Amino acid sequence: MNPCIEINPRVCSGKPVISGTRIPITVILDQLAEGLSLQALLTKYPELSLEQVTGVLRYCHSVIEHTELEREII
Predict the structure, then answer these.
(1) Sign (positive/negative) of CA torsion 48, 18, 21, 51?
(2) Residue 71, domain member (yes or no)
(3) What CATH number has the domain bearing residue 51?
């Protein structure tokens, strides 16, 4: 597992968060999807490091890579 990500049923209902925080990774993804730059994200969340944010992206990549997706037959 990624050391930047923590999954604990007692923290944010078990949703993946950035280790040592209560910031769900979905918050980071939402901010980036809305166009916030990495630098602006780090300014908005000064408790985060660039390593943690890139760890979130690596975690998401890994989850997608290891997921079987059903192909819809048209």
Answers:
(1) negative
(2) no
(3) 1.10.10.10
Domain-embedded: residue 44: yes
Question: pTM for the full model?
Answer: 0.80
Q: Which residues, listed in sequence order, are joined to residue 24 by a DSSP beta bridge?
A: 17
Q: 18: which strand partners?
A: 5
- Asked whether the predicted pLDDT for residue 29 surpasses 80, the reply is yes
* CA-closest candidate to residue 49, choices 37, 58, 39, 36: 39
Give Cα 26 distance to the centre of its chain.
Answer: 6
Four-point Cα dihedral 38, 42, 47, 48, nearest 10: 10
Other CB atoms within 10 Å distance of the CB of residue 4: 22
